[in-house]
């Protein structure tokens, strides 16, 4: 077993959002996502086969949904997004990293 830290090895410059798989098993995948001012293109929607539970560990973000609703997430906030619920990242803090923990199941 090897010890890891969710806040280590964060790049200083992020040209694009960073997705890192932390664990993958038959029915579940856990990833760390790092954003800094990144957002989805206006026409891009995530339409995932699996449910996604996501939490903001550091920073803040806004998620938008196809039904035109949106939700602001701050540190410690989490949400469960059902499979095929179309969503996109509308905004992340441009001045500080936003660190997400996502569980796909």
Question: Topology of this structure?
Answer:
Blueprint: E1 18-24, E2 29-35, E3 52-58, E4 60-65, E5 70-74, E6 78-81, E7 87-92, E8 98-104
Antiparallel strand pairs: 1-2, 2-8, 3-6, 3-8, 4-5, 4-7
Mean of all residue-level pLDDT scores: 96
The radius of gyration computed from the alpha-carbon positions, rounded to a whole number of angstroms, is: 14 Å
Structure summary, number of beta strands: 8
Query: Which strand order do you get reading across the main beta sheet?
Result: 1-2-8-3-6
SS-derived structural category: mainly beta
List keywords for this structure.
105 residues, mainly beta, five-stranded antiparallel beta sheet, three-stranded antiparallel beta sheet, 47% strand
Characterize this entry briefly:
With 105 residues, the protein is mainly β. The protein contains no helices and 8 strands.
Describe this structure in words.
The protein has 105 residues and is mainly beta. 0% of the residues lie in helices and 47% in strands. The chain contains no helices and 8 strands. The strands form 2 sheets. It has a 5-stranded antiparallel sheet, with no helix packed on it. Strand 4 and strand 5 form a beta hairpin. It is globular and about 45 Å long. The two termini are 24 Å apart. The mean pLDDT is 96.
């Amino acid at each position: 077993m090897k010890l890891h830290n969710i806040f280590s090895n964060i790049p200083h410059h992020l040209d694009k959002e960073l997705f890192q798989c932390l664990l993958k098993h038959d029915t579940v995948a856990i990833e760390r996502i790092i954003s800094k001012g990144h957002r989805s293109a206006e026409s891009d929607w995530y339409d995932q086969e699996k449910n996604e539970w996501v939490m903001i560990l550091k920073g803040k973000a806004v998620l938008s949904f196809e039904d035109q609703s949106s939700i602001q997430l701050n540190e410690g906030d989490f949400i469960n997004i059902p499979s095929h619920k179309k969503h996109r990242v509308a905004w992340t803090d441009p001045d500080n990293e936003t660190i997400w923990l996502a569980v796909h199941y």
